[in-house]
Structures are given as structure tokens and as C-alpha cells.
Amino acid sequence: MPELYKDYLNKQLREKKKHDVLLAMDVLPFLSKRTRALRGRFNKVLGEYIRKICDLELDSSALKSHEFFMSEEQNVFSEHIARSVEFDSDEEQYDFIRFLDQYLFNKEDIKLIHPFLFNLITVDKQNKNEFNKYGQFMKDTMLLNKEEVKGIFNQKESEDILTELILSQLDLLKDSPAKKREYKPLLKPLANLYQEDIIYLSKYKDYFLTSFPLLTHFYVFMYANQLVFKFEQYNEANYNELQPLYFSLEWESLSKRRKSASGDIDSFKYIKAKLDNLFPHIHTMSQLSHNAANVSENEIKNEETIDLLTYTEIYNLIQQGKLDERRFLVELKEWIHEYMAWRGNEYNSSSTTIREAFEELHDCLKLGMSSTVISKYGGNVEDLGANQFIKNRGSLGQVLNIKHDFLLLITAVSVKNERIPLNDLFIEFEKRGIALDRYSKKEVIKLFDKQNILDKKSDSGDAQYVKPIL
After folding, report:
1. Highest taxon of the source (predicted)?
2. 182, 200, 221 — which closes off a domain?
3. pTM score, two decimals?
4. 144, 34 contact by CB (below 8 A)
5. Which of 14, 57, 142, 465 is the most exposed, having the fewest neighbouring CB atoms within 10 Å of its CB?
6. Alpha-carbon distance values, 168 to 80, 101, 157, 353, 384 (Å)
């Protein structure tokens, strides 16, 4: 029995004549054609995401009957709500409809006056496939226990009569069976923090409505950056902790000596330089996941979805004796030779260790792939952070960026209900993947001092505490 199912890999490659993750779960929702549709429009993904959490879908027949979005003076949905209210005159009804139009809609977008309304964020047909992938990805990787979060978005209770009236007339959704997991969750510590943070924010309804999209955007962006970093470490990557990356504050001046603008391993310049490796890494791990410790020959024959294993997980299987190291290395080297033969190149592997063979297979796959596809796929990381978490600093290039509203938000979820020492705040930032150099920390302290967020125990500034924001 083989350790690596290279005959299956060979057969699939020759039949499909293209690179494919085959039976393995996917890792990221990126498209190789890079539409840039997500740039500055991350909130449009949230409807697909929340409906998947709540096991709901938009009812197309109800949407057609309501003509939900209108470009005319009045919105038909506002008229639908008004029909459930008694008026003394047509003029009163007309005024109420106009009020609802202004209260509930911003041009074609629904205003999020209640968490349930996230379910009604729609997406145009052109981007439906891509945004649906993001919604599924976020549900699969960012929520390890969606039931804890589901209750935030699937109930219609409200403290005011108007919102209660609006929610009672929402018959635009129907139940949808939960889909099987399609994406492998690789960063459980990040997912746990995200879930903890949004549950905390949900206790503060008004702030939650404006901050939930931004917080979710950050965690998804950070997830992608962390994977780029981890994959470069091959089997030495530790997925149980994050690598803090240096950010700068949008309003501070920078020089090339600053951590966020350097090319060091913990800067965005390093991440950007490795984006072209992302697509080959995913395919390398997908191929390696077709091994005897992960999937049986019968499952291969039945073409059942299999777990995607990282380099670290595969190496651990070898260390645990679940894969024979010598045989696996021999078969992996043979597969590298066969792959290169498929590409029309005579090639003999020179690897003497598993780590070397991992790197060699990655490099060979990268050579055999379209450089355009590789570049466009990796470029999705930039699109994900554009206009919010990535800023172009002229000659310094792109850096990771923190805007004022996000600084307050990440501080709020880091501190929560009890004041904490200032140094502990920066530790909480780093747990979430954010590192600040000493200059940025001084700017944070200056801002917090102005906004009365700091609590000083002495005039010298020693033992400074950060107060809860919410």
C-alpha cells in the first residue's frame, strides 16, 4: 500500500490537464481571476455570511413580489410595511412611507437598525458566486461554534415599536439546510478571539451595528495574512499562536526605519513578497494530503472530500509513525519526478529530508503554474485589506494601517468590562496579530490621554491603566 497516492494524483492531473485541490478541502475563497469586487465593499459579503450562520436564504419569490430595491421616489417594501398600519388619510400614509424610505434605506442599501437586518444585505448577480464563497469560508473558518453567535442575528426582538413593526413584516427569508464544511479552519486561536469579541460587542446594540462589519473585516484579513506567513514556515509553522505583524497609525508620520515600513519578516512588505507563493502552497498541501494516514484507498475511489493537512500536520503524522518516513520521502520524490515529466521536464529530486521535499514540490508546482494565475490569486489579499487595513505610504510602499475608529474598536474588545494595565492592552493587540513599535505606542498613549481613556495611578505616568470604552 502506498504512503502517498501518487498514482491517483498523476491520473487526475493528466485527465484534468490543470491544477486542482482534488479531494481536499479548500483553504481560501479567492478566485484566480481576481475581480477586485471586494475592494472597499467588504460589507456586501456580510449578508451571505449571516444567512449561512442563521441557516436562511433569501426567498426569490418574495423578493420578486416586493421589488425590494427601487430607484423611484418610494420603496415598495416601505409601502408593504405601511399596509399593516391604519391611517386616517392617504396623506398620512404617504408621509409614513416617505419616512420609512429615509429611515430604512440609504439609496439601494438597507440601513442596519437591528442585527436581524444583516440577513437582508443582498448582492448583485455579477458577484453572487464570489461573495457566496466568502460567506461560506467565513462561516467555516471564523466560527467554530456558530450556535453561540446565531442567536444574535436570528431573533427579531426590539425595544421600540417602529423597529418591531418593520421586523414583523420581513417575510423575505426562508429556511435553508446547513451546508457541510467546505473550508479547513486553520487558525483556531484567531477564530476563538473573534467569536469572543463579537459576543461581547453584541451586548451593546448600537455600537455592535456599526462595529461588527469592521471587526469581521479585520479578522478575515488577518486570517489571510497569517496563512501567508505560516505556509512559508512549512512544517515548523505553529498554528496555535499568531505572528504579530507591525501596523502603523494612519495619522502618524513614517520613515523607512519604522517596523511597519521595513521589509522584516513581521511587516506587510514581507507578506506581499510571499503572495505569489500562496496558490502553489495550497496545491502542494492539497496533493500531500492524499496520503495513507489521512484517507483510505476506498475513500479515494469514492472521491469523498478529505481533510486538508498542513505541512506541520503531515510532518507530525510522520513523527508519530502513522506514515513511514523513508517510504513517504521516496514516494514524494517519485511524485516530484512524475509531475515534472507531465510538465515536459526531466527532473530528479535531490531532497534528503521531508522538509526539503516539501519545498521542492512547492517550487516545482510554482514552475508548472501560470504566473498570471499565481499573481492574481495572491493579489486577493491586497484587495481584502485595501482602503482599510493597507495604506500606500508613497516611497515607503504599502504598510499595515490602523484608522482611528478601528483603534477604538480593537481597544474596546481587548479591554472589555474591566480596566487593564496599558502594557496588557498591547499584549491583547498582539494576540490578535497587531504589533506596534514604540513610536506608535506613544501615539496611542497620547490619543488615549486626550480622550480620557487612560487612568494614571501617579503623576509620573507609572502604572497606567486603560479604561473600558463601552
Report:
1. Bacteria
2. 182
3. 0.93
4. no
5. 14
6. 11, 17, 10, 64, 35
